[in-house]
Amino acid sequence: MKNTQQLLAEITSQGGNESSIINAIKQHLLSGNLQQHQLQECLHEMHLAKSISDTLYEALTTFIQTSNANTVVVDDDKTLLVTPDKAQFDADLTQIKADSNIDKTQLASKHTDLAKTRVANETTRSDQQPMPCEEPLETELDPNQIATQINTQSNVNEAESLAGQKLQSDSNAATVIAGQQTYHERTQQTDSQRTDTPPGKLGPGAIIRDRFILKKVIGSGGMSVVFRALDLRKQEAKNQNPYVAIKVLGDTFKHHPLSLLALERETQKIQSLAHPNIITVYDFDRDGENIYMTMECLEGQSLDEVIRQHKQGMPFSEAKPIIEGMCQALIYAHSKNIIHSDLKPENVYYTNKKETKVLDFGIARAKKTSDNKAVDTVFDAGSLSALTPPYASLEMLQNKDPDPKDDIFALACVTYKLLTGKHPYKNMQADIAQKNGLQAERITSLNRRQWQTLSNGLAFSAKNRTQNVEEFLDGIMPKKRGWIYALAASIILAIGLSGYLGTSITEKNTIPKIKLTVEQENKIKNYLEIADLYFSLGYLATPPGDSALDQYIKVLEIDPGNKAAIEGKKKLVERYQQLAAESLKQKAFEESLQLLDTALLIDPENEALLSQEAKVQKLRAEFD
């Protein structure tokens, strides 16, 4: 059988344009003599060499995965290859030639239906370990013991049993869990000491795809092992940080017929979540029988390690950026209808640069929406116990549909542990804690508003839980009023100090009329029209220079007694009063006070405003 390099040379020798590449791939696919992964490797190499465009690369990769011979387990290590339908094959290749933006979802579905023996289940597993680059090495471990350690985990028998069962084409994606432990390996090998490690026995010194030199084990679990690796291409390019983390499927799972698909789906999910608080994943690929995913190699500590260093809890001032980072990551994921489903301290990383990174979306689930009743990338973690019980919501334990509130429960548990050093329910899972009547002990360092927010997030029932992560973040963060002084300065500058300190809106009604020129009247008319526009857009007193208030001030500079401008300022004050009252109903005391402060900058002697502000201050004091 031809190796990848021979195949690559053969395909490119038929011409360097994309059309000839497509025809060559067609011939090799229809021949049935080549393995699917070899063609994928060729495409990957051509893509890296920029022989084909990004769009065509994605389309052809999907085409190969869905059109090539389908792998079906017959027994143990034997496989059966099924040739694709030639007529449909030709039609789809023609479509790719005409438009490389072919709908890949439809293409995959079409060929899945044609190849009736295709296994449609997807198997995935979340390895719940961070991938630190330089964290202290704690435990000596022979790399050859890794597979043994994995295979002796408490739930591996369940995983092996699942892999051997007949998979049903319409079932949910199978997610397998195995107990896991993080291991750290001390290695001092130089590049000259590298050894070729036999397939299935990957360890420090092994080389993947003639590019990645495995340096040390930084995490392992029931499904995979994570290595710190030197990327030779980055090193060749003199990159200052040539290291990556590589997640390699372990022996138990890499022979599963859908292992490649499972890891590809995890990669795809995380790549769709490009966010500074979510770990960056580069690519997934395979080298022979080794299936792997590459991602950024982080330097710092897992949140689990941070918590262990703060046994009495971390001060809120230090914990604040971590909590905010977790919230921002989840807000973004939820905006993409992705539920993490396994947020816990081990899956959050705090880097040496003081950045928070959320890891491991391997068992993330897609939120069901009205226009998305059946999503092929949904991994129903709850139904197969691929979750961490102390951080799983009651609804997850009951195998209910995924919901953002599942992540809110976990987020609240992690936040509580970060601030106290303890799990809110003594590491009991939600259903048992509820049955035993457990309640989280109040954190005295939080004010009443902050504690109420955290307590709501910890609610066993989803109907009592915080509605969304944005609400959780707003409630848990301390409020600041410093911006009001900047606003005051801009308003004073615009009005003029004497104007700000001198008279109220009511007193300006006593100013006599002055005779205006035609030019002044036109300016006033223009300013008032712009003020109406700004008001309708909600630009009341901000931003400075482009607000309704600015326009009224310009009018009053020309005509201090202009009734329209004076009424406009009254309207602004009334609007701020209304907004303050609405905030008060939501118990957003600080926001209500900020709005009233702004109104008082416009009309400093307004008795109604002063009375309303005093009322809000009193309520805030009672609530805190």
Topology of this structure?
Layout: H1 4-13, H2 18-31, H3 36-48, H4 54-67, E1 70-75, E2 78-82, H5 86-98, H6 104-114, E3 123-124, H7 146-151, H8 156-164, E4 174-175, E5 207-208, E6 212-220, E7 224-231, H9 232-236, E8 243-249, H10 251-254, H11 259-271, E9 281-287, E10 290-296, E11 300-302, H12 303-309, H13 316-335, E12 338-339, E13 348-351, E14 356-358, E15 365-366, H14 394-397, H15 404-420, H16 430-435, H17 448-457, H18 469-476, H19 483-495, H20 497-502, H21 518-537, H22 548-558, H23 563-585, H24 589-602, H25 607-623
Parallel strand pairs: 3-4
Antiparallel strand pairs: 1-2, 5-6, 6-7, 7-8, 8-10, 9-10, 11-13, 12-15, 13-14
Helix pairs in contact: 1-3, 2-5, 3-4, 4-5, 4-6, 13-15, 13-18, 17-18, 19-24, 21-22, 22-23, 23-24, 24-25
User: So, the CATH homologous superfamily of the largest domain?
Assistant: Transferase(Phosphotransferase) domain 1
The helix-and-strand class reads alpha+beta
Mean of all residue-level pLDDT scores: 71
CATH domain class of the largest domain:
Mainly Alpha
Whole-number tally of structural domains: 4
CATH architecture designation of the largest domain: Orthogonal Bundle
Approximate strand percentage: 5-15%
* Number of strand elements: 15
Give the termini separation. 74 Å
Count of helices? 25
Stretches where pLDDT is under 50 for at least 5 consecutive residues are: 67-84, 99-131, 134-200, 370-385, 495-503
Largest sheet: 6 strands, antiparallel
What helical percentage do the residues reach? 40-55%
Lateral arrangement of strands in the main beta sheet: 5-6-7-8-10-9
